[in-house]
Design brief:
It is found in: Cytoplasm. The protein is α/β, with parallel strands linked by helices and 165 residues long. It has helices spanning 16-28, 48-58, 74-81, 93-109, 129-137, 148-164, and strands spanning 4-9, 31-37, 65-70, 85-90, 114-119. Strands 3-2-1-4-5 form a five-stranded parallel beta sheet, sandwiched between helices.
């Protein structure tokens, strides 16, 4: 029996912090589906299709990882996929309270699917997609925060926005 984990997020954009969690999860689980979820409370910079493309490129060398998207409730999606686990990253204590709430609700919805938390490496503990976007917006160097494909996409996106704005 294969151990399948879902690694959910908005990934707008994917960062080295995300990739750290994905890689380490792939070392534990037989298969990891990195799933871009549409979060209605966020206004994304990249479309779902762009985020999927960036994730596919960024994870292409990580064995047993696939990329998908969903606008379904996480636990419904995980059940449909036959997942055994949800894989989440924690950066700091401040993440814990929010994640505990979500995990408690997920457990209420489906107690068969466990949530596993991986603490991010210290070098990424400050890193978030929001911070990356803010820094990239002002044309600062983000090469040590995101894969090259993401850096190029951010440069292109913010050059276009500068012209449009």
């Amino acid at each position: 029996m294969s151990r399948l984990a879902i690694c959910p997020g908005s990934f707008d954009p994917v960062t080295y912090g995300h990739l750290d969690i994905i890689q380490r999860g792939a070392n534990v689980f037989d298969e990891v589906i990195v799933t871009v979820f549409h979060n209605t409370s966020k206004a994304p910079l990249f479309s779902v299709a762009e985020r999927i493309s960036l994730l596919e490129e960024a994870t292409k060398d990580i064995d047993h990882v696939t990329v998908d998207s969903s606008s379904d409730l996480l636990m419904n999606y995980a059940t449909k996929k036959g997942a055994h686990a949800i894989l989440r990253g924690l950066r700091a204590v401040s993440d814990f309270e929010y994640e505990m709430q979500i995990t408690s609700m997920n457990r209420k919805l489906n107690e068969e699917i466990e949530t596993f938390f991986i603490m991010t490496n210290n070098q990424y503990s400050f890193l978030s997609s929001s911070i990356v976007k803010e820094v990239a917006k002002y044309h600062a160097n983000v090469s040590d925060l995101v894969p090259e494909v993401v850096e190029r996409a951010l440069i292109k996106k913010f050059q276009r926005n500068a012209v449009d704005g």
